[in-house]
Amino acid sequence: MNVVITGVSGFVGQNLFKYLEENQCNPVGLSLRNDWRLSGNYDALIHLAGKAHDTANTAADEEYFKINTELTKELFDEFINSDIKDFLYFSSVKATADTVDDILNEDHHSDPKTPYGKSKLLAEEYLLSKVLPAGKRLFIIRPCMIHGPGNKGNLNLLYKVVEKGIPWPLAAFENQRSFLSIDNLNFLILQILKNKNINSGIYNFADDDFISTNKLIQIISKTSGKKLKLLKISKKLIISIAKLGDKIKLPLNSERLKKLTESYAVSNIKIKKALQLSKLPVSAEEGLTKTIKSFQTK
Prior knowledge:
This protein has helices at residues 11-22, 61-80, 115-129, 154-163, 182-194, 213-224, 235-247, 254-261, 269-274, 284-296; strands at residues 2-6, 26-30, 44-47, 86-90, 103-104, 137-143, 145-147, 179-181, 201-205, 265-266. It is of the alpha/beta class and 298 residues long. It has a domain at 2-151 and 178-207 and 265-282: Rossmann fold (3-Layer(aba) Sandwich), CATH 3.40.50. The strands form three sheets. Strands 2-1-3-4-6-9 form a six-stranded parallel beta sheet, with helices on both faces. Helix 1 links the parallel strand 1 (2-6) and strand 2. Helix 4 crosses helix 6 and helix 6 (213-224) crosses helix 10 (284-296). It comes from Chryseobacterium contaminans.
């Protein structure tokens, strides 16, 4: 199976490329940075390239729409006029909701608040507005927080807190979050590519289990051999410090506090049902443990 992938230099792209190679596929990278053309004999196109969510809020709004929306439109138009059968667009759960009160599924009414989420949703809407030629399929993938060995982000931040023996100061915040290990992501993509009976549509990608941040701190402590230290400081005080971090450079600001403490539970029932799976290969705790162990080798 010949597969062309955009964004192959990113964390997901590098891992997915290697995984597909190891599973009898022939992946090829396509750079969209300069002049590009969709040519060649491919069975599927996986569109990973995009402008990631900037938690520091320094990116200009138009950058998101130029890259995440307009570039996706151009690529999809090329796909429509090509012989490629499958188009897999990596959107985000943030295209439908910035906050989640219950469990997020694909039927949720989309109402993103950030330029990132809005740019992803506009791309989705454009893809869904087009009539697919016979024999072609469109998959809009909405992953939640992706992690794995080599990944940098909030997990690495939490690891450093535990590794230094610093008590976790946000233990007063109770939440339930979804994560997505790179191993489960790779597995799901390969299953979609191999199974020609799956219908086009929007599919959430997430691990099976929800994990609280306090549970995550427990997993990190256990994996790194450190004593568990949970500190329950007043929520009001923490929120005040985060607001101060919005104005001056502090390790904690409102955006980061939200990411670390909010509940964001994502259902993966639809994709498992489509693939006739009872569970994913890697549990949420197994995946997180693998990622955390990778930090120890640095």
